[in-house]
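User: If only I could read backbone structure tokens as easily as an amino acid sequence. Underneath my words sits a plain record pairing an amino acid chain with its backbone structure tokens. This is the protein in question:
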Amino acid sequence: MALEAQYWMHCELYPSNAPIRPQIPTELKHVLLHARSDFLTSDTSVVPYDLSTLQSMLDLSINLVEYVQPLISSGDECVELPAHLMCVLARLMRLFARSKFLNFYGQVSARLNANQSVYEVEQSRQKGTLRLRLANAFLWGAPAAQYKFLQNTWVDNILNYPKWSKHISRLNGDWSNVTIFSTVMLAVDVSFLAVPGVISTAVVAIFLSAMCSVSSLVASMLLAVECRGWGTDSAKGAASFMARMIHTQSDVEALAIMYSLPYASLIWAMFCFVIALGICVFHSTNPATLVIVSLCWVAITTLTLWPAWWGKFSITPWSVPPMNGGQVKEDV
């Protein structure tokens, strides 16, 4: 496959006087049809392009087939395309030949899924270090999700750009929303400090909440700005960025923790504000007031944390999960 990719690179650079078999454009069309269907029906497709790019490539291959079709009827064993068309054909063939080479096409250990490594044991890849577990506990579970995404996207120094691009776009949207929420949280903290008669313990909690709000605001803005300057708008730029940032497994964890900072800081800001509010609420010495407020506080806290419990375990704590995983019903 490596020799085939090099051959097509030579044809791309020197497209003149390069006879080919007339069936090759049809083979390219079939490869693109398979790649498009694989991308549509699989979440872990090894196809390195998104759906719109594959459709554009397929249109080019159809034009090549239409051009070669009259030449096939003449019965010639080899045909010679114009230089520009040969360059188009050679480039597309080179791209998919290189993809086959990187995925060990035709070998026993071929990569069948984009998140599958052909060099490392799966258990060793999924297991994080103690630093990641501590950071995951301190940052409200955010690093674990980012770590899983990075592991499934950057495998064997190969970037799954369609998934990377989609996730980075979603991260940019999340960071923009975190910026808004952090600004609102900071304004609430400053307004809380303006209330007369706030006890000193609550003031300390509000100070911590304001510091976390500023940290979340600054981190989200820095990550959003730097992400635009990383050159990740193209597959080559994104791959260069990942190769520059990640050298070992520890670097993957560090990047996951960095991506989690805006969200985690915002949650800490809310948590400190709730503590300050609770100190002010339960500072009352009236027993009847304390009983009513305590009951309402427990009920509201339970309802607030129910979505987190639902997402992590099930809709009710006492329900038993099914033995078999869920399946998607497909219309035939």
User: Anything to note?
Assistant: DSSP finds twelve helices and two strands in the chain. Residues 313-321 have pLDDT under 50 and may be disordered. The two ends are 36 Å apart (CA to CA). The CA atoms of residues 106 and 314 lie 42 Å apart.
